[in-house]
Write a structure and sequence with these properties.
single chain, 549 residues, mainly alpha, 13 strands, elongated, binds glutamic acid
Amino acid sequence: MDWNKLADVLVPDENVKPLEYYEELYPPRNLPQGAQVTRLAPSPTGFIHLGNLFVAIANERIAHQSGGLMYLRIEDTDLKRKVDGAVDAVKNALRYFDIRFDEGAEIEGAENAYAPYYQRERAELYHAYAKDLIRRGLAYPCFCTEESLTALREKQTEEKKITGYYGEYAACRNLTEEEIYANLAAKKPYVIRLRSQGNAENKITFRDEIKGDITVTENDQDVVILKSDGIPTYHFAHAIDDHFMRTTLVIRGEEWLASLPIHIELFNVLGFNRPKYGHNCSLQKIDGETRRKLSKRKDPELSLEFYRQEGYYSRAVKVYMLTLLNSNFEEWYMKNPEKSLDEFKFTIGKMGKSGTLFDLDKLNDISKNELAKLSVEEMYHFLSDWANEFGNDQQKGYFADKEYMYKVLTLCMGIGGKKRRKDFTTAKQAVEFISYFFDSTFAPEYAYRFENETVKKILCDFKGKYDYADDCSAWFDKVKEVAANAGFATDMKAYKADPTAYPGNVSDVAEMLRIATTGLANTPDLWTIMQILGEERTLARLEKAIAVL
Ligand code: GLU
């Protein structure tokens, strides 16, 4: 068989150059010893998820800690899944978590010497190497139809054989020259398959940087390397791109572990050194009685967009991710809460070897703690940024009067108090939490625990006595007076000794006032709230509450 001729017929690409050309065009990187080159290689589907963020953080930390770099490659070989704007979506989503690429697709200002970073623009390279494999008898055309491949799979399943295109089942593996040209003349579509040299009886021990030593079976599948449109499969593009972009470490999801034998064989037949690999375990959650993988369909928290829309504080998410990613992070962070997260020494060996449990409640706790560290000014910007992007018009309006908002935040964050309050979890929740301070969204339901008559009497009495100039203790004396006038206990000791002797106590009265002015039974200090609302608004709210009783 004239393999040279066949290579030209099967992969007609006039741009293809001798292989040395590509080695020179993309030379080994000039980096210090030990510097790692890592990458994120998402498909442009528009859906960026926590799994992406996980590997992005690990890749970014390892690259930059070692004096290396991380690049962004777009794996756009599957046009059906491509979404416009997806590359920006990746970059924006990751920028929110402070992950920046040193080079790659749409990375401005970078030298980008290993471009192009879109796989669709790298066809020449894939074609050059596919041709080379055909010339060396290591790849061949396959004319099998979808139907015949489905029939093969069914037969293999029925016979309890390993499914796939290999050995005796690889119908096109040994076509004669005449048969190949006859098929081509008949214009039958074809793919290019690897002629695997492996044997599934052989085991390979492999060192995974995350999982440790693992044993895999040698590949014997004649996998597709070029699809019928000349576009490579993930496997083939992975080997070629990670070689020519000079990646030293591939951290990727563990769903790729099953195809690792294919990648090992491809690197071997292509004559490339393999990068190191780390397969990151899947993210799981507790769902009722079971523990399962996070799912795109069922779990909104899988999407990174969720965290921006909800207004999670990015440092909090990153702290939680690092807690899950490196077992010694939590202890380090306890000792160094103020330090930049980049000062933590990230180690790939400390990444989880099996499923990681993702717990939104834990993230919420971390978020509360992180937000409790912000200054009023930082909180103002954090919340207004969120409101401007995701809030409704009223919420955007909250930030017009900065002085007023500063007072609200100072109180709600507990600044100046004994301890900082931890009422804020996310920007969205915080903005909703403070909504009662703004007339545009003040829509109370007034859920009192006492008869309307009683409440009305108390509110009217208080309204008559209220003086904006009262300090906190004068104000409280008036609340007590009002309580006493209504027969409520003002001495808590006496009340506790015999609660049935009173309709309630002074804190019940305070609760009525609170509900009347804020709509809520629980808020920060009520005197301060009234001070912030101002005399006019406080009285208006009391009137409004009385009017509906
Ligand atoms: N495009 C692949 C994915 O999104 C990349 C896997 C890899 O990192 O090699 O899953």
